[in-house]
Amino acid sequence: MNKVLFQDSHELIEFVGKEVAVSDWLEIKQSMIQTFADCTNDHQWIHIDEERAKKESIYGSTIAHGFLTLSLIPYFLESCISYPFAKRSINYGLNKVRFPHAVTVISKLRGRFFIQEITPIDGGIQIEWNIIIEIDGIEKPACVADVLFRLYF
Known about the structure:
CATH topology: Thiol Ester Dehydrase, Chain A
Helix content: 25-40%
């Protein structure tokens, strides 16, 4: 995938209300889920007990934590969008997050990025992204989030 490269903030403004980029697919492996469980101390069996999940889960396998899916947003963003004119970029927070569909182990995910709004801030701009994390072969998305990033010049 080719990155969308923005040379200045005016180029970003042209994309308000439009899709900017789509990332490549990323396969969710059990090792990722286990590492996330260890980092967050969220060891619920649906995430880490493969045998029990095969027998008892409606999904027939383990599933990724919703917050693991959410935490992939910066990775997906960095993989397909670049703004080298910015001296720094920070994740400023979330306005809304939903997890419409579970992510089973070995699913492939990708991010779709839409600019909702751009607001001037002291020393830069704030971008409100609408981000849809899709699951390969599944109609419902894994995650839909309105995320705020701040770029400083």
